[in-house]
Amino acid sequence: MPNTTSQITCREWLSQLGRQDSFLGRQDQTPLLDENLQELEEGLQRLEKDIGSRLLRLMDEVKADFVKQTHTIEEAQAKIEEAFAEIEQSPNKAVTYKRVSYTLDQLVNLLSKRLRPRMLRTLEKLAPKYKTVEKPVYELSNFRLHASKPLADYLWMLRARDKRKTILPGASIFDLEIEPRLDKLCRAPFFSPVRFSLLRLRCQRRYAFYRLPFKAITIDCLITGSEITPTRLIQRHIATHDELQNRLADAWRGVRYNLETAATELNDISDSLRGGRREEIGERPIELKTIVFDALVKCLETFDDVIVTYASFTEAVIAEIARDHENAINTIKRGIRDSRNLKERTRWALRLMKKSWRRKIEHVQESATDKLTAIKEAPERWAASARWFFWLVNVFKSQQPAEESLLQLTDLPSEEELLEQSKSLPPIYRRLFQNLPLTNREFQVGMEAEMGLLLETFERWQSGRASSVAVVGPEGSGKTSLLNCFENELPEGVKVMRAEIPHRLLTSGDVVNMLEDVLQIEEPSDSAAELINKILRMDRQIIMLEHGHQIFLRVVGAREALETFFYIVMNTRSHVFWLVSFRLLPWIRMGYMLNIERFFTHTIKSEFHNVQELISAILLRQRATGQEPVFSEVGVNSYRVRKLLLKHQVQDAPVQQALEDIYFSNLYDICGGNMESALYYWLRSLSVDEHGKVTVQPCVKVDASFVKKLDTLNLLSLAEILAHGGITPKEHGEIFNIDVFRSRMILDYLRQIRLLQGHNKDKHGQPQFYSINSLFYEQVHSILNTMHIVY
After folding, report:
1. Can you tell me the distance from the alpha carbon of 269 to that of 282, in angstroms, rounded to the nearest whole number?
2. Beta strand pairing call for 630-631 and 602-605
3. Residue whose C-alpha is closest to residue 269's, from 289, 248, 299, 254
4. 3-state class of 577 per DSSP?
5. Contact 17, 11 (CB under 8 A)
């Protein structure tokens, strides 16, 4: 039996040998794993709590501001209710209607100048550009990235091959198996190192170490596998914010339009009462009250919806962050647990290999994309060619005789008849889709660049540089609306003189007299030079003139008025900001005669440039009604629609989008850039059932090819009316050298077949001025252009 000294020496020697052994002395790293997981979980919880408190605090501020604005509107609503109660008590007093109109005007100013800017500033706090929601997610991503960096790539985990045996966390095999047997090994009669080696071999059969890819699992679960990504959240935030901004804009637009319209009509009622025309009032006060309160109620409902939607979005983001944190921690734990088996360890080994192969495959896919795209697009090109061929066949088959097309054209209701037919629609429809010029930029679409150029040119003129602008466009294209919006954008204190050229100007004296009336100059001027001196002695001002086509008539000696007018413009445009609107074809004709573009520093075209602008203009008004229309499929002959109807209902979004595209494509073909015509056909397409559901019937194209069958004098008359923007029977006679009676007969015939419209009726009901019907302007102009009658 060995002595004590030898036992101590043997024990120390075997302990040192065992602890230095790469298998026996390696410690289980489960405690380090648990410590890292606990730190990670606590850090995520702290960040989640901080993010949630910041988002909710910001949302509470916005909500409080919105509630304050809502209370202001409710107080104004109570005042309006009191004002309308006065009308019910005194329905025949003009001053009562005037007072209510003034109250509505005050409310419009309150909404547009105080509440709306304040609410927009409040909502701007949540705008995506300030990253109110995205910034916390970036912080979360950065935290996860930095939290995973200091982690060990691998942790050694000890497991017993016998699953019934438990292992003390942090222990080594030496601690579990060797150390308790050291005394026995040293007391053994045999050589102890041999026994030690045999014991080591036995431990290798009982235990095993595996490398846990801790860092890879953590990165995969925290970053790669996270459901919250800044890019996706930014897209959701932008979509939500844009939708709510559009809904707010539609609500403001609708309430302002209805209040201004009601105020105007109340003024008209007051004037009617003062003039003794009580029979014109009827049920208008009741209808106006309904319109005003419906608009205010819808506006308040929209405010509530905006707050609820944004609060729901914020809460959803917070809940998603919490859920993602919980899923990430659980996924890490599950990945650690699953990594104990060979299958899972093999999977982690293959992941790195997959990443490298994925890069190679993506490179091959990118190089083959162009070839695959060309192969895929080939059948579509063949199908398009086939559709074009069959379309031509159908055109030749369905060509109608001129008499049948004429009947279709004359069967269309006039604008007055259409307004009468539209009484079944809600009152807001009849107001929003009336053919009236815009008075502000609420419903202006497609003119942002033009408006910007006008304001820029005005600033250029204010700095002392010569400036003059010509606004050019066909009838009904929005020239007056553009001028109205520009006038509303001007700063206070700017002097504006605005007028329409009332009749044709033929001589220098006509031009001088017209401008004297516009500028309210009492003392007559003997010449254009004298008028120029008077204008230059006046204050700097803006002069807006509409109907510039009235300066021109294609007869001998008519250049005198043109030259005089542009001589005055050219010599005063440093002192006066000239803004003159012209119809398109007269502008072109005057350009041929006098090259009039040189007298204007800027020329602005006022018409829609593409079908998307037309869609935006129509649907902007439609959204202001607060109702969503349903496009009807009845009568639509489209393969795309038939294919979609096999899988979807008519009300489903894909079918509605296809029907909307077809409708507006046909509408743009008919109207071009003419807003007046577009509003006419849109209102004609609307129908409302007993439940208030608004349906849009298909836009049927009108065949105006019968125009080609008209005789030569009628065709030339249409061409001259287009080129002059409209003419009187006397002017028609001077152009064609015929008597006035025959001219009137020609013009009345063209008016009866709906190609012309009459204006300025005399006491016998006879029109004194004729212009192209704006509903068919595009078709008539296109046909005459193809016949080379107009250029």
Report:
1. 10
2. unpaired
3. 289
4. strand
5. no
Contacts with 208 (C-beta within 8 Å, 6 or more apart), sequence order: 158, 159, 161
User: Which residue type sits at 98?
Assistant: K
Residues forming a β-bridge with 580: 470, 545
3-state SS class at 690:
coil
| 583 bridge partner residues | 473
Between CA 27 and CA 32 the distance in angstroms is 11
What pLDDT does residue 295 have? 80
CA 407/CA 226 separation, integer angstroms: 66
pTM score, whole prediction: 0.60
pLDDT of residue 414: 60
Burial 629-645 (b: 16+ CB within 10 A, else e): bebbbeebeeeebeebb
What strand order describes the sheet that includes 630-631?
630-631, 694-696, 686-688
- Answer yes or no: are the C-beta atoms of 645 and 694 closer than 8 Å: no
Residue with tokens 């991503």: 141
Strands 576-583, 602-605: pairing is: unpaired
pLDDT of residue 280: 60
* CA 502 from centre of chain: 39
Burial 127-158 (b: 16+ CB within 10 A, else e): ebeeebbbebbeebbebbeebbeebeeebbbb
Give the residue among 720, 713, 715 at the shortest CA–CA distance from 704: 715
Contacts of 23 (CB under 8 A, 6+ apart): 173, 200, 203, 204, 209
Paired strand residues for 498: 544
- Contacts for 697 with CB less than 8 Å, ≥ 6 apart: 632, 634, 635, 685, 686, 687
Q: Please name the residue ranges forming H helices in 556-674.
A: 559-572, 584-594, 611-624, 639-645, 653-671
Enter the tokens of residue 137: 């997610």
Rounded Cα distance between 380 and 426, Å, is 44
Q: For residue 710, what is the DSSP state?
A: S
Is there a contact between 150 and 224 (Cβ–Cβ < 8 Å)?
A: no
**Where would I find the H helices in 702-776?**
712-724, 729-736, 740-752
Q: Side-chain half-sphere of 257: how many Cα atoms within 13 Å? A: 28
What tokens appear for 239 in the block? 């979509």
Contact assessment for residue 47 and residue 142, using Cβ atoms and an 8 Å cutoff: no
Residues 6+ positions from 168 with CB-CB distance below 8 Å: 28, 175, 176
Residue ranges of domains in the chain, CATH in brackets = 4-28+154-210 (no CATH), 32-147+227-338 (1.20.120), 447-605 (3.40.50.300)
Angle 653-671/611-624 helices, nearest 10 degrees?
120
- In the chain (791 residues long), the average pLDDT of successive 10-residue segments reads 56 79 81 84 84 86 85 84 81 81 82 79 80 77 77 80 76 80 70 73 82 77 63 79 81 79 80 72 76 82 86 85 80 74 64 68 71 66 60 47 44 57 60 60 64 86 88 81 82 85 88 89 87 90 89 80 89 90 87 84 77 73 73 80 82 84 82 75 77 78 78 88 87 88 90 84 82 81 84 66
Q: Work out the number of other CB atoms within 10 angstroms of the CB of residue 534.
A: 15
Find where tokens 């979004």 sit. 653
CA–CA gap between residue 789 and residue 306 (Å, rounded): 56
SS3 call for 699? coil
